[in-house]
């Protein structure tokens, strides 16, 4: 133990951290770095490298572009590797201490099992915070840049908007005569074509006004950001009473309508889920809620909760790894790696189950996202109580 203390970090003494905690954290850092390196490399190889090599041979993707895309995708795999590295570090560190009888020596001095695993839990919380910030600030931007770089190199650059058949339904709530509230279609927006600035051949059914419906048919329309409304050109407005009787017909060359900007946002290309941070995902959620797209709403809600829940896998893995490592048996790196793979497989199996149950509306979105963490922390706490 004294020999290993030479490698502990002197800066910890500045914060009043005990010798035992410095020793344990120092022992955890090496396997953690090793684990993050191994798991992120495996992730890149399986999730990115093979596909890029296929594109190099089949689609003549330049090697330098493939290298750039691989580097840009690396942050996503590093994020996934952080909880795996924490699991491997806790498992190997406490297993070595157990096999060398250092845990027995510490416990004979009155150190409880709770106190022994505390450094692993503190380090897990720090890694959780790092993973959350990394996944918010670095991963979405790098993943989006990788997608754009790859599309440009393969001449598959996609326009950042939907070019045709833009259909945007908007729903509102009305109160019936009996006082019951119900959700109805309040507005339906259709544009045949969109070139990124001008929408063409539009038909809008507007039922948002009480006692009157209007149908707008227009040759083209643009969003006016100065006046925050739509400019319609060369069209006709049909006004119809709620009892379906004729009210008026208005022909126009230029007419402004106070309609929301949402159809324009809806027509613009949306990023994939890993390419969005929480703020961007919440903006997407608002659009999906306005269009009442229940499937996309559920998926976005689960992904937003997962943005918070996934970093906490570091805490669950740190707890489970420390408890498994404290058992009186020797675990080498190969065995530790194998046990880690099994735990990781169980975690992602639960995550897939949560996804399926959440998308089917069997369980709420927050539970779908947090299900693996709840299970992991529950199992870890149960093992800890039994061991104490």
Largest beta-sheet characterization: 6 strands, antiparallel
Q: Cα distance, first to last residue? A: 23 Å
Form type: elongated
What's the tally of helices?
12
- What is the percentage of strand-forming residues? 15-25%
Largest sheet, spatial ordering of strands: 1-2-3-4-5-6
User: Could you list the spans in which at least 5 consecutive residues all have pLDDT below 50?
Assistant: 1-7
| Average pLDDT for all residues | 84
Q: Rg from C-alpha positions?
A: 28 Å
Structural class: alpha+beta
Total E-strand runs: 6
Give the H and E element order: HHHHHHEEEEEEHHHHHH
Percentage of residues assigned to helices: 55-70%
In words, what does this structure look like?
The structure is a single chain. The chain is α+β, with helices and mostly antiparallel strands. It contains 12 helices and 6 strands. It has helices spanning about 1-5, 20-60, 65-100, 100-110, 115-135, 140-155, 260-265, 280-290, 295-310, 315-325, 335-360, 365-385; strands spanning about 165-175, 180-195, 200-205, 210-225, 230-240, 245-255. It has a 6-stranded antiparallel beta sheet with strand order 1-2-3-4-5-6. A hairpin with a 5-residue loop joins β3 (about 200-205) and β4. α9 runs parallel beside α12 (about 365-385). The radius of gyration is 28 Å and the shape is elongated. The two termini are about 25 Å apart. About 30% of the residues are buried.
């Amino acid at each position: 133990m004294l020999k290993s203390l030479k490698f502990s970090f002197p800066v910890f003494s500045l914060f009043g951290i005990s010798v035992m905690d410095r020793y344990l954290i120092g022992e955890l850092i090496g396997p953690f770095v090793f684990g993050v390196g191994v798991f992120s490399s495996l992730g890149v190889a399986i999730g990115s490298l093979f596909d890029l090599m296929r594109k190099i041979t089949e689609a003549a993707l330049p090697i330098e572009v493939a290298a750039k895309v691989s580097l840009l995708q690396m942050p996503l795999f590093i994020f996934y590797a952080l909880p795996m590295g924490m699991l491997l570090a806790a498992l190997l560190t406490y297993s070595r201490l157990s096999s060398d009888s250092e845990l027995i020596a510490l416990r004979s001095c009155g150190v409880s099992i709770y106190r022994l695993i505390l450094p692993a839990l503190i380090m897990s919380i720090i890694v959780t915070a790092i993973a959350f910030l990394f996944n918010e600030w670095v991963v979405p931007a790098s993943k989006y840049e990788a997608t754009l770089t790859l599309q440009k190199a393969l001449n598959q650059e996609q326009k950042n908007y939907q070019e045709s058949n833009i259909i945007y339904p908007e729903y509102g709530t009305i109160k019936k005569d009996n006082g019951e509230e119900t959700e109805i279609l309040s507005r339906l927006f259709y544009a045949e074509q969109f070139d990124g600035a001008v929408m063409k051949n539009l038909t809008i059914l507007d039922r948002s006004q009480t006692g009157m419906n209007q149908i707008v048919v227009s040759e083209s329309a643009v969003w006016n950001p100065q006046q925050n409304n739509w400019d319609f050109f060369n069209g006709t407005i049909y006004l119809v009473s709620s009892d379906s009787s004729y009210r008026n017909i208005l022909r126009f060359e230029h007419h402004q309508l106070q309609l929301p900007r949402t159809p324009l946002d809806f027509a613009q290309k949306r990023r994939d889920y890993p390419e969005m941070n929480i703020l961007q995902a919440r903006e997407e959620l608002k659009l999906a809620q306005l269009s009442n797209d229940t499937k996309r709403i559920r998926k976005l809600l689960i992904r937003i909760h997962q943005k918070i829940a996934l970093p906490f896998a570091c805490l669950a893995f740190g707890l489970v790894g420390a408890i498994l490592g404290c058992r009186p048996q020797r675990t080498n790196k190969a065995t530790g790696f194998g046990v880690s793979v099994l735990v990781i497989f169980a975690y992602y199996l639960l995550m897939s189950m949560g996804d399926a149950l959440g998308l089917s509306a069997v369980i709420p979105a927050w539970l779908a996202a947090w299900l693996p963490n709840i299970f992991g922390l529950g199992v870890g706490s149960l093992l800890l109580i039994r061991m104490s």
